[in-house]
Amino acid sequence: MGNNRINWIDNIRGCGILLVLFGHTLLTNNAHNIIYGFHMPLFFFLSGLVCDEKKYDWKQFFKSRFNSLVIPYLVFYIITWLYWLFFERNFRSFNIEWWQPLLGMLYGARWHGLMVHNVILWFLPCLFVTELLFFLISRISSKWKQLILVSVLACCGFCFKMNLPWGLNIACVALQFFWLGNIFRMFFVHGLCERCASDEVKVNNSPTTKNAVGFISLALIVVYIVLSVYLNNNVNMGVNVFGNVCIFELLSYLGIIGLSLLFWSFIKGEIKILGWLGQNTLVIFAFHQPILRIVKFLGNKVLPAFPVETSIWYALLADITVILCVIPLIWFHNKCFVKVLNKLHIA
Q1: Three-state secondary structure call for residue 241
Q2: What is the pLDDT of residues 247-291, one digit of tens each?
Q3: Residue 38 carries which DSSP code?
């Protein structure tokens, strides 16, 4: 994507990372069902939305995705493993040896607790595999044939009950969301790359259409929340748990389409805090869990029985603290790490 930013995509990505934070902080049953029902499919959808695979051949695409996903995965994994090894491991009991997380890094998926120091990192190798699968399928000229293959792979992914290396089975399920995002790219994303400003869709210039789409999106979100609570479908994509597959599919698409339409039509302008979060999702994603554990530990020291897992206000306070703590890491990543990668012709 380079430096071409789209405000509403940054906004929704920022909203998504807030859902990730809340999902790891507020652990009530209703919060879990509402957040986990669609927040990870949303990230796969957004990745497909900004993927312009047509300008690459296979070698270029593989190198681009390896540099953007696998190298950060390895760097973030080793950094957080070293923190766990020399610091956190001395304060919390773990049922694994010091070297076992290194096997988890090679396996690239949550398996037998080998990613216990930073489980969220499963997403990066899984997204890498998802994008490679998508690139291969995108070479098929017929969209209908693509849809059939994507559906078959999703069914195969649902059938595997253990996490395969690099989340291959989860990637097969995630591929449908990535593929759909890329299909919607032609409708949602205009004015980028080779497209000129005059090619933009004018639908948002009509107040009537804007209000109608906004109303539909809000209705979809309300329906999603009600059904998530009522159906109580237990989902955790990172460990290959989807509950009732039909309910998972229904709720995932309701949440994705509702939130995407809301931001695309109604909240299209820049929202600075969400935009900033969206632009720095990768670093927040990689470091928030170790920092959150520190915040919870200190919170329990100051306030015994720190109710961060059951109180939305304490959870919000904890998540704000995590974001503030990760700001120096974001600065270092953007000012130093990215420059080093650029010099090495990696970024």
Answers
A1: strand
A2: 999 999 999 999 999 998 877 677 899 999 999 999 999 999 999
A3: T
How many angstroms separate the CA atoms of 331 and 337, rounded?
9
Spatial separation of the C-alpha atoms in residues 269 and 169, rounded to whole Å? 37
- For the chain, give every domain's residue range: 7-343
Whether 295 and 315 have beta carbons less than 8 Å apart is answered as: no
Closest CA relative to residue 335, chosen from 324, 325, 347: 347
Token pair of 186 as six digits: 């032609």
Residue 102 phi, psi dihedral angles, 5° rounding: -65, -35
Name the nearest CA neighbour of 337 among 75, 38, 144: 75
How many angstroms separate the CA atoms of 268 and 265, rounded?
A: 6
Instruction: Say which residues have a Cβ less than 8 Å from residue 24's Cβ, sequence separation at least 6.
Output: 120, 288, 289, 292
Residue type, 161: K
pTM of the model: 0.93
Identify residue 333 by its one-letter amino acid code. Answer: H
For residue 236, the SS3 value is strand
Cβ atoms of 108 and 165 within 8 Å: the answer is: yes
